[in-house]
Amino acid sequence: MIYNLYIFNSAGDCLYYSEWRRKKQTDMSKDEENKLVYGMLHSLKSFVARISPDTSDSFQSYQTSTYRLSMYETPSGVKFVMNTGLELSLQSAREILHSLYKEVYVEFAVKNPMLSLQSPIDSELFRDKLEAFINSKMRE
Amino acid sequence: MIYSVYIINKAGGRIYDEDFAFNRQAEEVTFQSHPIPLVLTADTGKVLVKFGATGNVKPGHSIIAVDRQAVTGLYTAGDRAILDVINDPASYPLTLTFGRTKASANEKLMLASIFHSLFAIAAKISPIEQSSGIKELHTEKFTLRCFQTITGVKFFVIVDQKQTGCEHLLLRIYELYTDYVLKNPFYPIDMPIRCELFDQNLRKVIEQVERATAYNSATLS
Question: Mean pLDDT of all residues in chain B?
Answer without folding.
Answer: 87
